[in-house]
């Protein structure tokens, strides 16, 4: 390499030959071209994944589906992305970052258009699943290139800067989605991401590195992909349908047994082959294992809380979609602003400390919601949500840097894919688990309240007052009885739902407190 070329490459860079070549073409400022490209791409995909949260009630009404069916709009996206995240390392080695970035965004764009014009819930779920599969390639590659274009001593700050753009999408998504739903209809939440997707494709062709011609060309792990696909579909189907069919039903038992068998077979198969889609040797590193556990918890908590809060606001508090999105906006902005601060601090202190502090902040913000009710002030919810998102901002830059710092350059691609796979897996499991938990707790509380309210003097007095009011309008006695019973049942169900949502938030908080234990083992040696 000539002295002129060396001057165009920043000091301390540990990168693949393909990225070094891009520095030789664009000079030292190439890092910003690369970061801008991946930020724009991530913004587009994350906007589409988070904006749907406030549209779920509208979609349920539009197609006449239940909450269990509608949750597949989130679960399908997450599950498909989980699988393709594991394939990102293979895709980079075989196709290169440039081709896989542009191809993924093209597929994502087509699926976005189909989702916007979907005539049925089945087509919409398929479109969301394809969106998730395409976006699954993006995050690991974005994280990988962002890690390599900055020197080791600035990687925390780099992750923080990258996180500003990435976290603006979840911050703006619910608010923008709420406005589009109130002003137009839910289909526009798909169309809004089209311009960004169109812009990101030519930028990827310009600034993403091509395939390293001397790099390895691993064989595609067909069996591993098949086993992982069956595992996820069987597991998520068994979980989502458990309340409808019952845990002891043959259908649910078969699904969960299939998930267990394919999961074990997947691990066995990955240990046998030369080019696994998931390099299990990563988990011989204690620090990476600790980071993996925390990553799963973060994914579960982030997606579960983002799923629960809009539902509570819109269904129980009767908040319009736009106001629901506006409530989440300050927290998202606070999270984005805290990212570079947390990244800067993580380069100069022990990342473990910030991760533990972040886990406690997020856990506490969920735990205090155990007292939430339909009259909880809007501003109070905003305060607690901001605290939780600030906690996540403290975690993400440190967690990403700490998990990859423990790996050699040859394992960075696999490590990036594994970290994002685990976060996505945690998200998919978290959404399903919290939906099941809240539904089951609602049923339990409904039964308990129905029994307890049948004999209270206040309830009997309310029934008498209501029937007298209906009788004053000249309504038949049979209609009075039916209306009174329906009204009482609705009150009981709403109260049971409030109690179930409280339990859901409290459960998320407890899990985050427990995650402090593995986070303690993430100590990084600082020079």
List the helices and strands and how they pair.
Elements lengths: L2 H5 L9 H10 L3 H22 L4 H8 L3 H4 L1 H23 L2 H20 L4 H28 L6 H29 L4 H4 L2 H14 L14 H19 L1 H4 L4 H23 L13 H31 L4 H26 L4 H17 L10 H28 L6 H42 L3 H16 L4 H38 L1 H4 L8
Helix pairs in contact: 3-8, 3-9, 3-11, 6-8, 6-12, 6-19, 7-8, 7-11, 8-19, 9-16, 9-18, 12-14, 15-18, 15-19, 15-21, 16-18, 17-18, 17-21, 19-21, 20-21
- Find the structural class using helix and strand composition: mainly alpha
SSE pattern, N- to C-terminal: HHHHHHHHHHHHHHHHHHHHHH
The domain tally reads 2
Based on DSSP secondary structure assignment, what is the total number of beta strands?
Answer: 0
In helices, the fraction of residues equals over 70%
Q: Distance between the terminal alpha carbons, to the nearest Å?
A: 29 Å
Report the CATH superfamily of the largest domain: MFS general substrate transporter like domains
The oligomeric state of the chains shown is single chain
Poorly predicted tracts of residues: none
> Given the C-alpha coordinates, what overall shape results?
globular
Task: Examine the coordinates and then state which fold CATH places here, giving the name of the CATH topology of the largest domain.
Answer: Growth Hormone, Chain: A
Continuous helix count = 22
Q: What is the CATH architecture annotation of the largest domain?
A: Up-down Bundle
Radius of gyration: 25 Å
How much strand content do the residues show? under 5%
Averaging pLDDT over every residue, what do you get? 78
CATH first level of the largest domain: which class? Mainly Alpha
Biggest sheet overview: none
């Amino acid at each position: 390499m000539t002295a002129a070329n060396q001057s165009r490459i920043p000091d301390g860079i540990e990168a693949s030959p393909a990225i070094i070549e891009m520095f030789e073409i664009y000079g030292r400022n190439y890092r910003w071209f690369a970061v801008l490209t991946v930020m724009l791409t991530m913004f587009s995909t994350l906007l589409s994944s988070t904006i749907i949260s406030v549209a779920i009630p509208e979609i349920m009404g539009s197609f006449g589906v239940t909450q269990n069916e509608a949750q597949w709009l989130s679960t399908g996206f997450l599950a498909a992305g989980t699988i393709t995240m594991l394939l990102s390392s293979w895709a980079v080695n075989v196709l290169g970052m440039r081709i896989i970035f542009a191809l993924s965004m093209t597929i994502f764009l087509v699926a976005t258009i189909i989702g916007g014009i979907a005539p049925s819930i089945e087509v919409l779920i398929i479109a969301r699943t394809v969106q998730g599969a395409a976006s699954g390639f993006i995050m690991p590659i974005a994280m990988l290139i962002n890690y390599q274009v900055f020197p080791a001593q600035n990687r925390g700050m780099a992750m923080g800067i990258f996180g500003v753009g990435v976290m603006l999408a979840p911050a703006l998504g619910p608010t923008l989605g709420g406005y589009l739903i109130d002003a137009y209809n839910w289909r526009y939440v798909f169309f809004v991401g089209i311009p960004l997707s169109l812009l990101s494709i030519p930028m990827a062709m310009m600034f993403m590195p091509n395939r390293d011609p001397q790099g390895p060309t691993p064989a595609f792990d067909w069996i591993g992909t098949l086993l992982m696909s069956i595992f996820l579909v069987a597991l998520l189907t068994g979980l989502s349908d458990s309340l409808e069919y019952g845990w002891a039903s043959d259908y649910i038992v078969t699904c969960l047994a299939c998930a267990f068998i394919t999961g074990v077979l997947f691990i066995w198969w990955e240990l046998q082959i030369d080019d696994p889609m998931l390099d299990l040797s990563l988990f011989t590193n204690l620090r990476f294992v600790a980071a993996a556990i925390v990553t799963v918890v973060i994914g579960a908590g982030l997606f579960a809380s983002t799923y629960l809060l809009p539902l509570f606001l819109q269904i129980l508090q009767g908040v319009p979609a736009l106001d629901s999105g506006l409530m989440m906006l300050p927290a998202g902005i606070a999270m984005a602003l805290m990212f570079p601060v947390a990244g800067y601090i993580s380069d100069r202190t022990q990342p473990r400390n910030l991760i533990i502090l972040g886990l406690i902040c997020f856990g506490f913000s969920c735990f205090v919601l155990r007292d939430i009710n339909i009259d909880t002030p809007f501003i109070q919810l905003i305060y607690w949500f901001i605290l939780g998102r600030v906690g996540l901002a403290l975690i993400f830059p440190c967690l990403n840097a700490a998990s990859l710092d423990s790996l050699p350059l040859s394992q960075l691609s696999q490590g990036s894919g594994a970290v994002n796979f685990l976060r996505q897996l945690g998200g998919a499991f978290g959404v399903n688990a919290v939906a099941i938990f809240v539904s089951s707790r609602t049923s339990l509380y409904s039964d308990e309240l129905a029994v307890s309210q049948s004999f209270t003097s206040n309830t009997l007095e309310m029934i008498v007052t209501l029937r007298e009011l209906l009788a004053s309008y000249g309504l038949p006695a049979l209609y009075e009885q039916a209306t009174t019973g329906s009204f009482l049942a609705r009150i009981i169900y709403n109260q049971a739902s409030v109690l179930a949502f409280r339990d859901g938030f409290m459960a998320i908080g407890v899990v985050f407190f427990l995650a402090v234990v593995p986070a303690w083992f993430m100590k990084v040696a600082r020079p």
